Amino acid sequence: MSGTEILLQQLIIGLSNGLIIALIALGYTMVYGIIELINFAHGDLFMLGCFCALTLVGGLGLTHPGSVLVLLAIVPVFCGGLNWLVDRLAYRHLRHAPRLAPLVSAIGVSFVFLNLGLFWGGLPMAVFGMGRTAAAPKDFPDLISNRSLLGDSAISFTVKDLMVIGITIPLMLGLTWFVKRTRTGKAMRAVAQDQLAAKLMGIPVDGVIGNTFLLGGALAGVASVVYALYNNTIYFQMGYRAGIDAFTAAVLGGIGSLPGAVLGGLLIGLVRAFSDQYLETRWTNVMVFTILILVLVFQPSGLLGAKQREKV
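Above: the chain sequence. Below: its structure as tokens.
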């Protein structure tokens, strides 16, 4: 391949992975925008979504490409419901506690999810290796063809790349419309701006926050299906890496900003792809966090984050 072809190939890979990171980052930034909680369990929720998808594939015998619709219908509901349940049982009782309390609780929930994933990997199902190697990576079946749509071209743009774009872009546009145009979305923005004023206006603040966790979890569920279909390998510790990338993307773009989360995810995906290609893989994380530090030094609120006025 020529230098230009390699560049274009890495651009495709970076954008595809960046869109997946952006989906996870949106869940981070939505929750932070509402209650200023960094939900460290979000990455492990994404991992559980991948395990749920593999369980459905094995349990229902899904082999046809149309089965993707079944996964997209069930997994986001599972992840959204689990995220809502965690908020209902843990975070809601800590709304007015010192900020450290919900943060430590989020780390605790992350460990609970991590161990649940480890136990889940030990299920006696064929797709989990009959449970003999619970901690080992699991192969996710190729429900989507890896055939290139560009024919004999040296550049590969596969059906999987098209799937990532075809699912994530409309979902992000739909989320933007939902937050800006619907009654629930306006209530979310009101609660994010001032919870007390929103409550005085008759907005059910706890219900709106619960809906935010539900929506953020559903986005993680969609991301888990897309990731599993695109990369075909899942493991119980994958939530840490995905969570770090998504959190970094949210901070880079401006945590609390939906467009910022998308921009940050795309940048992280591109930086990782180009660094893996043109530098050694061991330098990839260094490059990602170097860029993050440089951005925060000159733009502390992130690329698209709103500047906060300090109260005196």
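Residues 3-132+139-298 form a domain with the ABC transporter involved in vitamin B12 uptake, BtuC fold (CATH 1.10.3470).
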